Amino acid sequence: MLESSFRLGTVFGIRIGVHYTWFIVFFLLISSLFVVFRNAHPEWSSHDTFLTALLATLLFFVSIILHELGHSLVAIAHGIKVRAITLFVFGGVAQIGKDADTAATEFFIAIAGPLVSFALAGLFYLLKLWLMPYSETATAVLEWLTTINLVVAIFNLIPGFPMDGGRIFRALIWKMTGNAVKGMQWAVMSGKIVAYGLMMTGMLIALQPAMLVNGLWLMGISWFLLAMAEDSKRTYFREHLAGHVSVGDVIQKEVPMITADMSILSWIDENMLLTGHRACLVIKDNQTIGLVSLSDIVKCPREQWSNTSVRKIMTPLKRLSIAQPTNSILEVLQIMNENGINQVPVLDQGKIIGWIDREHILKILQLHLDTGR
């Protein structure tokens, strides 16, 4: 969802990025705060008011990053990899590598963000009291930051999945029932109820004079929560199912193969374009020596395709990620995601017996979900 983002930096090994939609809320928030500060302090110049609004906005998004870092650092402490934190139009999201293994882990990861926001609200409040006699500008910024962090903390505790409160609710149901699946089902249901409630509230607010933007914003958040709740449910049950299906059950034994000495051009014209196979195992003397895929072609200039063998651009067998028939397809998907690949050869007793590719896995999982089996 948030792939189109650019990198700001790295904190504790976590990539911090900004999605292009973030600029919408960034400029809207500056404009809104400019009006708020101008009305509260008409004696300020436009230049000073703008700089104050800009400072408050930047510190707010720093607060959002710290909120997400709260989730992320607790996840890392429990052995869960966190790929990135991305700011976008509706706030921020931490891209955590996998689901929590226990209800307690899920609870601690979920509660960490709101606790950070409560702590920031307390810190900004104390700073406001300290700086109040010295700076009217600092007092105004810190007072707003105190309020907005309290709002973020409390709003996120609403039990609507995938918000923090929904994840906490899921963890509690999971703990009480001992059933992670039931916890997810209840959490998604609560998320949809909350989202529809926010949508109705947004509609009512939008009907009020001068409140159209606020109402539309709340409706936008509700739509996002609905979409995320449904997407989270599909992802969770797909991964839950994937953890119970072995590679040996769905292995593709009819694997496309080409000889090591075949030219790139011949492979494309005589194989790829006719069969639709974007990748092939490379064979020499009846032994698999590597794998070549469409993405490997970029290693070679087009004018050299006719006289360059696929062996020159393939990934050698010793560098390939390999699966065993006993691996779950969830493990294979994790291998694919971590290495940015779409095919994984399957090795049994030292011999390649087939492969499994991403498209095949997703098709199998979707059929399981569609049939309810």
TrEMBL record:
Name of the protein: Zinc metalloprotease
Gene Ontology BP term (one): proteolysis
Transmembrane feature ranges: 20-37, 49-67, 73-95, 107-127, 147-165, 211-229
Active site: 68
Family: Belongs to the peptidase M50B family.
Cofactor note: Binds 1 zinc ion per subunit.
Pfam families found in the cross-reference section: CBS, Peptidase_M50
GO molecular function, one term: metal ion binding
Topological relation to the membrane, as annotated: Multi-pass membrane protein
Xref: PANTHER family: MEMBRANE-ASSOCIATED ZINC METALLOPROTEASE M50B, STAGE IV SPORULATION PROTEIN FB
Listed cofactors: Zn(2+)
Binding of Zn(2+), residues: 67, 71, 164
UniProt xrefs under InterPro entries: CBS_dom (IPR000644), CBS_dom_sf (IPR046342), Peptidase_M50 (IPR008915), UCP006404_Pept_M50_CBS (IPR016483)
Subcellular location: Cell membrane
UniProt keyword terms in alphabetical order: CBS domain, Cell membrane, Hydrolase, Membrane, Metal-binding, Metalloprotease, Protease, Repeat, Transmembrane, Transmembrane helix, Zinc
